[in-house]
Amino acid sequence: MPPPVFRFAPSPNGFLHLGHARSALLNFDLAQRTGGRMLLRIEDIDTTRCRPEYEQAIYDDLAWLGIAWEQPVRRQSEHLPLYREAVERLMRDGLIYPAFETRAEIARVVAEKEKSASWPRDPDGAPLYPGTGRHLSADERERKIAAGAPYALRLDMAEAMARIGPRSWIEEGQGPDGETGDVPARPEQWGDVILARKDTPTSYHLSVVIDDALQGVTHVVRGQDLFRATDVHRLLQELLGLPQPVYRHHALVLDEAGQKLSKSTRSTALRDLRAGGMAPDQVRRLVGIASG
Ligand code: GLU
Predict the structure, then answer these.
(1) Across the chain, which distance is largest between two alpha carbons, in Å?
(2) Ligand 1 contact, 23 CB (< 6 A)
(3) For ligand 1, what atom is nearest to the CA of residue 13?
(4) Ligand 1 neighbourhood includes 283 CB (under 6 angstroms)
(5) Comparing C-alpha atoms, which of 122, 127, 99, 274 is closest to residue 194?
(6) Cα(58)–Cα(15) distance, rounded to whole angstroms?
(7) pLDDT in tens, 143-177
(8) Do 235 and 161 meet the contact criterion of CB atoms below 8 Å apart?
(9) Sign of the four-CA dihedral 249, 255, 258, 261
(10) Which of 28, 100, 141, 163 is deepest in the core (most CB within 10 A)?
(11) Sheet harboring 96-99: ordered strands across?
């Protein structure tokens, strides 16, 4: 049996905090305990928010925690043509269409609809895309693209689901409502998700499933905030013919007010805790992961 493969996949758009420490340490400890491999992947496709100093801080903070990972580190920004290829393939398969509305226009359409009835929201609380762009003719799409209009490339969720049928994933951890074991995927809750944009050839959902498959990741261990994203990941794995890893979502580290930590809160940033004299073992205790 080949060894299990774990990965920690942060985005360099801020400094790592205690929540990241929990994820990274869990992955590393599981790899150690099972004779598995530990990978680090830098998810830096959002060039407007990612910065080299944040990436360097990731390496410094993880090394300080005593975590070791394989080289080379995969940086998503170096593989954009690969993601673009997948988008083109889904487009050829008739599963992706360009949608031209701005966020404000979508909000206006949704507000109008909400005058008469409630409008569905995705698990992150955003209103589902009303699907207007799905009905544009090929001519209209081409005319808008030729005129230089910005657009998002959206997955035709109904069509994708009709082709793939119901799927599930193996959850070795727990979802926010205690979901565990064989969890049914419900990608329809997300509506026509964005998989790429005019100027960005990919999205979190698309690159994460492509990279997990390409890197042979067998176990995805990450925070519960990404539990429902797995709905979309399972669907994309089937559409692209990729293998499915096992998932383990862990509870988030919360602040005193019971809120999810944010990359902008300095008090829980690993580099600030380190500068304040905290030891890596204390971090382990704080995030509930015993040493060794
Ligand atoms: N890059 C994502 C984040 O920083 C995590 C991706 C994943 O673990 O699937 O939240």
Answers:
(1) 63
(2) no
(3) 4
(4) no
(5) 99
(6) 7
(7) 999 999 999 999 999 999 999 999 999 999 999 99
(8) yes
(9) negative
(10) 28
(11) 96-99, 152-155, 194-197
Q: Which residue has the higher pLDDT, 292 or 272?
A: 272
Decide if 164 contacts 239 (C-beta within 8 A): yes
Q: What is the 3-state secondary structure (H, E, C) of 61-115?
A: HHHHCCCCCCCCCEEHHHHHHHHHHHHHHHHHCCCEEEECCCHHHHHHHHHHHHC
Cα 114 to chain center, whole Å? 29
**Predicted pLDDT of residue 291:** 74
* Calpha distance 207→202 (Å, rounded): 6
Neighbours of 269 (CB within 10 A): 21
- Write the burial class of residue 226 (CB in 10 Å: 0-12 exposed, 13-18 middle, 19+ buried): middle
The residue to mutate among 22, 44, 62, 208, having the most atoms of ligand 1 within 8 angstroms of its beta carbon, is: 208
> Model confidence over 208-227: pLDDT tens digits?
999 999 999 999 999 999 99
Distances (CA, A) of 284 to 1, 24, 280, 288: 31, 11, 6, 6
Per 3-state DSSP, the chain is made up of helix, strand and coil in percentages (nearest 5) of 45, 15, 40
Calculate the CA 40 to chain-centre distance.
Answer: 15
